[in-house]
């Protein structure tokens, strides 16, 4: 997989780097999914914010330290992460997941 990324992106990433990025994205997905499915939390997809009362946030963050970054800003690429990590897709071979289209948010220089 690293070879494919290197060829497409003209970079030199290692397998360990790819695994590290994959693990970080999976952790972010699971943390965010758990947060927005918790009672009293709502994700406003258009505004990209998680809505809850200050008291609900404070109580949740006493026992869950990972989602603190989502208090101000949601998970910008949640829909893509859901495609990668939802349980039904995990049954797919990894090469199918790698083939999913990825949008580059950085425009190419003219």
From TrEMBL:
InterPro entries: LIMYB, Myb/SANT-like_dom. It comes from the Eukaryota. It holds the Pfam family Myb_DNA-bind_3. Residues 1-60 form the Myb/SANT-like domain. This is Myb/SANT-like domain-containing protein. It comes from Morella rubra (Chinese bayberry).
């Amino acid at each position: 997989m690293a070879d494919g990324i290197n060829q497409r992106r003209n970079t030199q990433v290692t397998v360990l780097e790819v695994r590290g990025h994959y693990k970080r994205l999976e952790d972010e997905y699971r943390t965010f999914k758990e947060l927005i499915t918790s009672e009293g939390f709502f994700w406003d997809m258009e505004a990209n914010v998680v809505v809850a009362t200050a008291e609900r946030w404070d109580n949740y963050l006493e026992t869950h330290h990972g989602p603190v970054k989502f208090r101000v800003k949601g998970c910008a690429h949640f829909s893509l992460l859901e495609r990668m990590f939802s349980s039904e897709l995990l049954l797919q071979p990894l090469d199918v997941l790698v083939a999913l289209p990825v949008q580059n948010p950085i425009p190419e220089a003219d």
